[in-house]
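Ligand: pyridoxal-5'-phosphate. Inputs:
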Amino acid sequence: MMIYLDNGATSWPKPQEVKLIMNEALDSGGNPGRGGHGVSMEAARSVYRVRELLSKIFGINKPTRVVFTSNATQAINTALFGILKSGDHVITSSLEHNAVTRPLNVLENRGVKVTRISGRSGNEFSLEEYAAAFRDNTKLVVTLHASNISGVLLPVEQIGEIARGKGVPYLLDAAQTAGVYPLDLNSLPVDILAFPGHKGLLGPQGTGGLVIGDNCSLRPFIYGGTGSLSELDSQPDFLPDALESGTLNGVGIAGLGGGVKYLLAQGMDNVRKREQQLCQSLIDGLLHIPGVKLYGGTDAATKAPIVAFNLGEIDSMIVGDMLDEEYGIISRAGLHCAPHAHRMLGTIEQGVVRLSPSHFTTEVEIGETLKAVAKVSKELL
Amino acid sequence: MLYGMLKEYRALITFDSLSEAFGAEQVLKERNCPSALIHTPRSLRAGCNRALCFPLAFKDLIEDLIDARVVFTGCYEARKEGFVPLGEEAGDSESNQGEDNDDLSG
Ligand SMILES: Cc1ncc(COP(=O)(O)O)c(C=O)c1O
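Predicted complex:
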């Protein structure tokens, strides 16, 4: 029996609704918006319904400002390359996932100046340093919402307010928080939000997107067929077509709609609280196991549903492998695509073992996990 | 010249994006106005090759579309002589639709 605690990478299991709706979409066929026949139109309409649903949950009153991508990484790249060009300046954090770090590295080589705001455990993003980092050519602020390693939340309200005060758009990487925390762009000072469909929103892999605020315009990252203005060689400039070249993942997007509907029926707050409770049980139990080092604090209610730990100085990969091979517990060990954040935690060599339950996880599974970690600790330390 | 549901409905809206057409479809539906997506007439070239036709009697709902922030590129009445921008009376020389004027050849 497997105990799956890697929902931070992708959520599993998916609600039954997701599978049903994807099967239906596969059975009905059609390339969304390509060709005028009924099958294509129905496929396109089904994509539109999900656009509408997402525009509602993210608080943007234009469904056409929801743009679909294959994952959060593609959404982030679309936003970064769509805004920044040589001579521009961008501000980011020191906790970023490689989905932000690597495109920024390429842009840096192309003449974009990047400022990384420093931080330390407990104060992950120095707001003083940040407020002083703006320049005349600052064109964007980009940060993640919750660290994918520790679950710690950045002060996104303040980051966004300060950016607004300077007239600079704020791109939020909500990979670990979309579908977990309410993210309403009416009240949250975020201008562009990147989300994965396959994590907290409970959709299938191959889904994600951008929510683009009214005052932002992005150059396309990928060019090609959109089903609109087909007679022209040039890319359409209207949303969502401008940023959605090529056949959409219609089946996946339909499934994402199923995931979001399920989530809304359960109540996002209920789901998160349940996950945070499970994390608190993990934290409380881990604190009693000899040699456990916890990262990201001990209050699960204040962060995304992620628990990170190590056993003494033991390589996190060894612990992760033992949990998997001997106890069937699926964690995520190692560096989690975020080397800068590991430097901040002092775990760049060791990595961490990350446990991320979902609301489908049971207390019994949490108990089994704690027993297994205790046994591994006994064996290795 | 008139085809499909346009023969019966007589009012037509064009869009740049198909997503906007779905947005319009939704607004009309919520107001119990029937509609149909048809091929955009060649003379009304718009970004999207589907246009939405609906009964002329509901033409005031254009205001609702604007309120709902639906972006459309034109709205027309289909007449024997061609597509006349909605809100423009026959023989009305003053047009507020500019570029749409030469679309009457439909
Ligand atoms: C903070 C953060 N950003 C971006 C990503 C990338 O998401 P995706 O795999 O959907 O591209 C992840 C995934 O783990 C993440 O945790």
